[in-house]
Write a structure and sequence with these properties.
2 domains, 12 helices, 14% strand, binds pyridoxal-5'-phosphate, Aspartate Aminotransferase, domain 2, 12 strands, Aspartate Aminotransferase, domain 1, 3-stranded antiparallel sheet
Amino acid sequence: MELLARARELEAQGRSVVHMEVGEPDFTTPEPIIQAGLRALEDGRTHYTPAMGLPELRQAISNQYHLRYGLEIAPERIAVTPGASGALQLLMSVLINPGDGVLLADPGYPCNRNFVHLVGGIPQTVDVGADSRFQLNADLIEKSWKNNTRAVMVATPSNPTGTMLSKEELRDIVQVVQGHDGYLIVDEIYQGLIYESEDHTALETDDNLYVINSFSKYYGMTGWRLGWLVAPLDTTDAIDRLAQNIFLAAPTPAQYAALEAFSDETTTILEQRRDLFQQRRDYLLPALEELGFRFSVRPQGAFYLYGDCSRHSCDSASFAQNLLDQMGVAVTPGMDFGENAPETHIRFAYTTDLERLKEGVDRIRRFLKRT
Ligand SMILES: Cc1ncc(COP(=O)(O)O)c(C=O)c1O
């Protein structure tokens, strides 16, 4: 965020900045969704919905699980939330008591640790690397489980590495977590943005886990603040009551707009965008490798590449700062994602078009020649 602020400052001074730090799609929300949002406002859909969300939207999400994965997920198990962030806050509040530990991968999405702290829980980060494709696995979880551990949180595809957990790996994780009587939370917010692996959901593995998802990334709706979670039926009552207290409901016009998110017309647009993300990844990965950044694991999804920059610098924060100041290229240093070798890692986001990415690579090449 500091880097983004610095990048905006430079732009305000008239400098050109290539943004490879932004964690949201550059595309605006697909037109059918925007039109549905406008219609909702014109029709006066400006009141609260039920705390768990608009019944039609919960049904539409349930239908989507059936269509994509052949699953029967009762709408009663689905809560519509203000972004995946709202879902994370709700789940932590429902599942974690003060002093409870939550296992998290490091590197990982930085806010997760703070959501655990928020409810008095203790983030128990586990270093992950190339050998487990930057993911927690059953073995790591078993070894890291402590007396106070209550839950495990994984993300597939992950931020910042873009790597995924296979169905088999998820199955093994479920077994270990259930063996300890713990909760498994699977963040699937980058679902749909997958380039070379079978699209699947943890819900195919087991019903007794918690899945987080969002309209932010694949659906291109970051600013509408809309996500959802799927929970076992025996916790939905607690989730409902907490949602009523914490945020009352997700934004109403956004919920009506999202009813269009699964239409054929929108899907066609979203799949074209997915193809563009793939083209960008397929360009950027080898281009950065040629410049000496190392990617020990090929990312299968999301829109991030998490590279080892140690050939050029063992101080990724200064590297990112200098790259921005001298060449106008914004990237995210590893320190944003944890304490596991952050100084030798950088996250490159391909949330800008191919031409700009090429410009960014060219600037990085010139920067490396200079230093
Ligand atoms: C892994 C992961 N989870 C959750 C979120 C929160 O997303 P939102 O609240 O926009 O749905 C993000 C955002 O970048 C993320 O990367």
